Amino acid sequence: MNLNDFIKIFTESFDEIDETILSDTKYKELENWTSMQALLLIAHIDDTLNVVLDAEDIKDTSTIAELYTIVKSKL
What we know:
75 residues; mainly alpha; 4 helices; globular
């Protein structure tokens, strides 16, 4: 999995998203980002990649690239 694959997985976790997602996107600043979306993202990554993220992983990152680094380290 590369960063572009992860961006696609991230984007798929949203029902609807209008913004363009890039590696430097600060995902917590997205219009559709909510605590429920964080849970949906965690579940989607678990289902898709078999990687379990926790709240600390979300709390400790701000960009897609940072989150990707954590996910990749858990693969």
